[in-house]
Automatic annotation (TrEMBL):
Domain of life: Bacteria
Name of the protein described by the UniProt record: Copper resistance protein D
Function: Involved in copper resistance.
Major location (coarse): membrane
Family indicated by similarity: Belongs to the CopD family.
Lineage of origin: Bacteria, Pseudomonadati, Pseudomonadota, Gammaproteobacteria, Moraxellales
TM spans (from-to): 29-49, 61-79, 99-120, 127-145, 151-177, 197-217, 229-248, 269-289
PANTHER family reported in the protein's UniProt record: INNER MEMBRANE PROTEIN YEBZ
An annotated GO cellular component: plasma membrane
Amino acid sequence: MVIGLKAVIPLRSNRVTESLPLLAQLNHVVSLILLAFVFGHAFLFLCHIDYQRNLLKASCVLLLSTMVIDLAVTSLLLTEQSWSALSDSLILVITKSQIGLLLVIKLLASLCLVLSQFLLTAVWRQGCTVLSCLIISYSLAANGHSAEAGLWSYAVVIHTTHLLAGCTWLGMIWLYLYYQTRAYVQIVYFSQQLSEWALICFLAILLTGFADGIRMWQWSQGNWTTHYSQLLGLKLGFLLLALVLAAYNRFLRLGIIQQHGRIDRGFNHILLIESLLLVGIFIVATTLANTDPSS
């Protein structure tokens, strides 16, 4: 973690722009959503669904921009500086802290992700996309409370899996809604695949979330009255609601699609609500990452 950054190099200002913490959290949520689009395309690939690479390219470019913003804003927050001292803050955080190293790794992985979409052939592109996304996800997870257990710890691996599952679930839903009207899409097969993969993602989220939640609950001394514990409960509530909706779609609405062989509006409406709940989970998770477990 960052130790004595301000004592290493005297910077020009002691003022932090008040909007920086909010900007950092908003940028983090946007980066998770963009990562979801990338993982969603991996789902399309596994389902053998042809997709427009322009959407994937745009997601990768925007993801890179969020990593640039993350590096700048986090550096200013850690050094408690204003935008006028950005260059000094960047140098200080990158050279003197573990967080700075993770930020640079995320940025480089995002750059490789973008370049692979424009320069590499299909096989190399897919491999580079998977590797880059894994590195980005691990770096994101290692910037949270799980890093207290160590950068290369089971806690970070568990949190990475948790993040991957959540992003994949959201990405699958949105890309299913986007591509289902394509003439070449077999809607029954596509819907079945979505339902099956959503179940896998939910189980992964539940198991990893349980393991991570137990560790953080112990850290908060088992006190459910803390702000952190209440946020954790809110996140769990959103997840359970998403599970109920997913189960309703799987056991009731999916049968209608299989029977009639066409798009079902009710199925789509439930998916849209699911996706909003997942975005809500992302927002709560981002708040949790910036909340003291004992508070």
